[in-house]
Amino acid sequence: SFVTPHWHAQALRIAILAVFAASLGAQGGHSAEDRREMPVAFTGTTTAPDSSQQCPKWAPFNRTVPAMWFGGPLPETPSALATISKYAVAVMSSEGTLSVQQCAALKQIAPSLVCLTYRQTAGAWPLDPPFSTAVPAPAHSGWWLRADNGSRWLSPAYMWDWRNDSLRQWYLDTATTSLIREHPAVDGAFFDDFDGAVCPFESAYAELPSRYTAADRVAMHNAKMSLFGRVAPAMCAGGQLAVFAMAATFGDAEVPAEYRCGVNESATLHQLGAAAAGSFARYRIWPRLEQLNEAKCTFLMLEMLRERQAQIEQFFYTIVERGEALSDVPVAAFLLVRGPRSMFGASAGWVDADWSWHPQFDLDIGTPLDSGASVVNGTVFRRRYTRGEVTLNCSTQTATILPDVNTP
Questions:
Q1: How do residues 48-78 score in pLDDT, each as one tens digit?
Q2: How many C-beta atoms lie closer than 10 Å to residue 407's C-beta?
């Protein structure tokens, strides 16, 4: 299933939010002028990757497997920060200023570590600045999706209505620029539930109030893409990378049922526009071995190779239960599509105890010799590295990662 960390990491807040919601009350509805719906049809221009763009400006990873950590809750203890510092990438799971402060604390221990903040793009947690001031403001009543009784919809955070012009501008100026771009300790941001309005794999969007139609979902998606087509290149200009938790697929081959979505990934790239080319990574979930088969494996590999051609980096994640050994299969899948700033993570969940250091994180076969894997007989994928070779056989769901014994 499509799993992202947002509601899991924040679940303990729900009871507090219920009290907060009661204190705010319904705050009424909002006018059509305040909401300003976008056209329903998918919009955008054709995107061509800009090979000259270097985004972000932090150096490509020199580790074969750039391991990431994505835990919590924050704030972390000094001993936890020391443990996190051995990873190549850390994502601070709280929104707002706390995650920025934690990036700064981590950079004091490991200056070269890449530190990302977290952003929930479906809704706002009103306990985190600057969202804590945005949520109750009467002037912002048009920023929120509404329950059928007219109150702001809490699911479990307050859900953004991206069709509102002033909300999109505020998010670009405040939630992106002032909280991300202006802080030197922050190297980028993970934007969760990116296309959930039209790919409702998450509880956040799965049960929209009945007042919202399918056309409303598309309009919300269009408006959101118009915003993030500005967010990604703006962050790139500041030397930072946006990570989008996307569920869209290119759908060129038969799409397994669990990956079918309301939008094609090509359409998303078109909507984000040429300026966003090469400026973001895509959160990708690789199934556990018992959930993998030939069709699903082949489909995912071809999807990721398409993304590699479009200069989309991989924020690659797989589930490994606590105390369980990490299989070579997801590691090989990652290495076959790894870009210079792609990253790999494996955990049982989204708290600190769910993350472990696996032996594959110490693997050293150098860096890729080509832009992506070659395909052999349709289901076998192979890629050469400077000191080894990686192969994944989707027919048998087996992998080999071989060091080159002739290369020092």
A1: 334 345 678 788 899 999 999 998 888 999 9
A2: 11
